[in-house]
Design goal:
By secondary structure, this protein is of the alpha/beta class. Helix content is 29%, strand content 18%. It folds into three domains: 33 residues, no CATH class; 119 residues, NAD(P)-binding Rossmann-like Domain (Rossmann fold), CATH 3.40.50; 148 residues, no CATH class. It has ten helices and twelve strands. It has a six-stranded parallel beta sheet with strand order 3-2-1-4-5-6.
């Protein structure tokens, strides 16, 4: 009997000791259970969050969104509301100064003319960068960012979401497998621009909205008076801020062409367009890029190829056998 009581006492004592050392912790702190502990999450800041930057950050919401920056707080309000714990800024430089040590990655979705200056600073600081398309406002800026990414050994990605889809990989596999033979001519087009283009600079004077920091929007571009036609959204059509329909959409539409056909630099470029001016991109254009022959891809030859681009409602010449009113391509995109 005494031995039994002693064994029971010892069991209770050991159980109490074990219970005292046992703690229930939230499942989000344990890796391997479908959750990330906070220490495993990246600290991300977003710059240019009123437009495409908002859904980009939503796609990153498994991480810690610690800072949000936009020159137009009215346009950015929905994103601010989505991430109420993040610090808010007008000026990305101030955000970098204040949050530098806490930042792991930077999402950039500003107007095209400020992509390079923001992304470049982030890389020099050793931050990983996700930058919306088009990567930059000029070829020089793209080459500069390429060098900075290599020098500072950071992870980078351009926001060209079509590149990640199965369709692009499928097209590449078809072509590389010889399913449609050797390709010598490509035609690609878009229904853009769906914003104002082909315009002269407005002469009307407007007051800057209280929620917009116009100086910060202008950034590295030459200063000009504010007008509502420039921002939000419509900056795409103005040379000082955007790259027109071609720069905005060709990075999507011609991406599978470049990948599948292993293209590099063209030998020549020629084109025609509606009336040109120095303020904004033309309303419509047709451009031909002539590329030299490339090395075989497996058993498939890569001969010289002409790539044609159309925008603003222009389309390839209709084949003679195609009936009037019948679409060149039934993709419901015009």
């Amino acid at each position: 009997m005494n031995n039994t009581r002693s064994s029971r006492r010892e069991f209770v004592k050991q159980a109490a000791t074990a219970a005292a050392g046992f703690t229930i912790i939230p499942n989000f702190t344990v890796s391997g259970l479908g959750h990330k502990p906070p220490s495993d999450k990246m600290n991300i800041v977003g710059i240019g969050i009123g437009g495409k930057g908002h859904p980009n950050l939503v796609a990153m919401n498994t991480e810690n969104i610690i800072g949000l920056c936009d020159v137009d707080w009215k346009y950015a309000k929905k994103c601010f509301d989505e991430f109420p714990e993040a610090k808010k800024y007008y000026d990305w430089r101030k955000m970098f100064d204040e949050l530098d040590d806490s930042i792991d990655g930077v999402m950039v979705a500003t107007a095209d003319h400020t992509h390079a200056i923001v992304a470049g600073h982030a890389m020099v600081m050793g931050k990983h960068v996700y930058c919306q398309k088009p990567l930059t406002h000029s070829i020089y800026e793209s080459r500069l960012l390429t060098k900075l990414a290599a020098k500072y050994r950071v992870a980078t990605q351009m926001g060209n979401q079509g590149n990640s889809g199965d369709g692009v990989n499928q097209v590449c596999e078809w072509i590389w497998n010889g399913e449609i033979g050797e390709i010598r001519e490509v035609h690609a087009w878009t229904n853009r621009p769906i914003w104002p283009q082909g315009l002269q600079r407005p002469t009307e004077q407007m007051d800057v909205p209280e929620t917009l920091n116009w100086d910060l929007f202008i950034g590295p571009a030459p200063m000009r008076p504010y007008h509502e036609i420039y921002t939000p959204w419509n900056w795409r059509g103005w040379w000082d801020f955007g790259t027109g329909a071609f720069g905005d959409m060709a990075c999507h539409i011609l991406d599978p062409v470049y990948r599948a056909l292993q293209l590099e630099f063209p030998d020549s470029i020629s084109g025609s367009s509606t009336l040109l001016n120095t303020e904004s991109a033309p309303q419509a254009e047709k451009v031909r890029f002539s590329f030299p022959a490339r090395q075989r891809k497996g058993r498939v030859k890569m001969p010289a190829v002409d790539v044609y681009w159309y925008d603003g409602g222009l389309l390839p010449d209709r084949p003679r056998d195609l009936k009037d009113g019948e679409s060149l391509l039934f993709d419901q995109m015009g």
